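ok trying again, last paste got cut off:
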Amino acid sequence: MNRIVLPMKVHAVKLEYRRQLLLSIPNGYFKSIKGRHYVLITYDPDMPNISKSHPRRLIVTTKLGRIYSEKIREYLKIKAEYDSLFIEWKSRYQSNPPYVRFPVKQFYDPHQMNNEFFRRQIAHTGKYVPDNPTMSEHGIFKSKNEQMSADLLTRLDIPFKYETSVYLQEIDETINPDYLVNFYEIDRCAYLEILGLSDKLNYSVTTATKIYGFSKQQYRPGREIIYIFLYDKYNFDEEYFIVQVLSAYDSMIPDSALVWDAGSQAI
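nice, full thing came through this time. structure:
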């Protein structure tokens, strides 16, 4: 499939989130000197005397070296993500990205569906077990389409939990949405449902009842609940899935969160 193109606000948020994160953690790199492996710390928010010209050097096999090695590996991972996002931004827009006001505030948040909410939820609470489940690196799914959805969420760097539970009072039923997805950069999460078209009456009634239950309890489509309608259950539309998820993410970012009169943010 084609490369993923992020909506502008999502792109800006991902960039600024990583930029601020890089400023809050130790920076550095690894180097071998005369056969010995070192981790060099070039920035540490807790040690102002450390700099690129005066780095702290630790042997990676020492106790402190192992601790900092883990921190620097995380730094290098985030820095690579930031650099890739920044290069893509400059290529697309030929301008500096905006600053983002964190935390990103929502105009309306009826269910407090934030990162803490995501952390508390328990996955794999559904009781139905299909005759032919789909196995993958992400676990066991009821269908190939659910497994493909998990693959795409992973590619989008969107954490998810499969089949958490939510009680819908209007229909007096506890259901297990396919996914709870976490837009962690903006401290938000949402349920995601994969809905296929079916000529089976029971499936259609269940789907309609579920949508009614979410609607009556102020789970807004594209905000607290994302519906992915599969118009052909035998041909999973990856582009459509990505657009629906990223459009929902983009709609959760108020325009006021972005500050466009900022200078360069390159690190």
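cool. The radius of gyration is 22 Å. The longest helix spans residues 63-93.
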